[in-house]
Design a protein that fits this description.
InterPro entries: Clavaminate_syn-like, TauD-like_sf, TauD/TfdA-like. By secondary structure, the protein is α+β, with helices and mostly antiparallel strands. The protein has a single domain, classed as 4-Layer Sandwich (Double-stranded beta-helix), CATH 3.60.130. Bound molecules: 2-oxoglutaric acid and fe (ii) ion (FE2).
Length: 331
């Protein structure tokens, strides 16, 4: 695993100032970052007026690394208050950054929320939570959060994932590995582009896990998009025991390659990691939670990019385990 190789994009002083100012204005009007159609309309209105230089820094991911770190936002460690003890108690903690993230997400595409996750909020709080240490979700800590595509089980999943750092005293790294850096044989690629294995809903979606829609359909792990391979990968929720030995071996070689090319990004307060969810799988290293109000704290937004052609058309027929992604802005 390598460190520090992520491409960096720097917001200028104008960009930082306007984002902060606009977010505070929206918060003053609505007194919460919980989204209503009115708040989302205001976000869209202001996002459209952000400066050309801010928009330029928010252009699509444009390297094989499949990600970038946006720098410049300021986060005052005292002002944001203590790290919430779980997403469920986070409420409007550091709400101004929920709005900043929504503005950034709206420039990059269309933010999405899930009814079944974090009360349908568009910006999630990622904090370690007591009792969840060993899960494969963002609330875990002592285990390695294995590399995964975000919301891999669902055809409405994000094209882009944004992780904004509020606090990270122990420099705990997010991991990221791009399919564009992987070396695989043609035979392995051919096997993994076949729709053989389903991806089941993860532990953040308890309702979807009890969905009874019959046998879940197999989906391809790899896909040949116009500009190269894309992937849909979540081994923790893929029933690999059902695969043929040859298929399983190819999947394991892909896992090993992703581990080989994986990088670590330790975010500092104010930095926003933007990950292309079709090119890159992300995870997190294990750590010891503090549970004293000073824990690592990220804010997460998921974004769809209209008319992107990075996935098989057959995804349109998937049931998505009864879950629906709610888009912030009308198409
Ligand atoms: O904690 C992290 O760095 C990443 C967690 C994660 O997988 C996510 O928020 O989707
Ligand atoms: Fe994730």
């Amino acid at each position: 695993m390598t460190t520090g190789a992520a491409p960096v994009r720097q917001l200028d002083a104008t960009g930082v100032g306007e984002l902060r100012q606009v977010a505070e204005k929206i918060l003053a009007e609505f007194h919460t970052s919980a989204t209503s159609p009115e708040l989302l309309a205001r976000v869209a209105e202001f996002a459209a007026e952000l400066s050309e230089s801010t928009r330029h820094e928010l252009r699509p991911v444009d390297t094989d690394a499949g990600l970038f770190v946006l720098r410049g936002l300021e986060v005052d460690d005292t002002e944001i208050g203590p790290t919430p003890s779980s997403w469920a108690t986070a409420g409007d903690s550091a709400a101004v950054y929920d709005i900043v993230l929504l503005l950034l997400a709206t420039v990059m595409g269309n933010p999405i929320a899930w009814e079944g996750q974090q009360d349908g909020r568009f910006v999630h709080n990622i904090v370690p939570a007591p009792g969840h240490e060993n899960e494969q979700t963002g609330a875990s800590s002592t285990v390695l959060l294995s590399p995964h595509t975000e919301d891999a089980f669902h055809p409405g999943r994000a094209h882009l994932l944004m992780l904004g750092c509020m606090r990270n005293h122990d420099h705990i790294a997010t991991t990221a590995a791009s399919i564009r850096n992987v070396r695989l044989s043609e035979a392995d690629i051919a096997l993994l582009t076949r729709p053989r294995l389903p991806i089941l809903p993860d532990d953040a979606y308890t309702e979807a896990q009890s969905y009874d829609g019959g046998q879940p359909a197999g989906v391809p792990t790899l896909f040949h998009a116009k500009d190269g391979l894309t992937l849909r990968f979540d081994p923790a929720y893929t029933p690999l025991d059902d695969a043929t030995p040859a298929h399983r071996a190819a999947y394991e070689r892909l896992s090993a390659e992703l581990a080989r090319v994986s990088g670590a990004v330790s975010l500092s307060p104010g930095e926003v990691l933007v990950v292309d969810n079709d090119l890159v799988v992300h995870g997190r290293v294990p750590f010891q939670a503090r549970y004293d109000g000073t824990d690592r704290w990220l804010k997460r937004a998921s974004v769809r990019v209209p008319a992107r052609r990075t996935r098989p058309l057959a995804e349109q027929d998937e049931h998505g385990y009864g879950q629906a992604a709610i888009e912030a802005h009308a198409a």
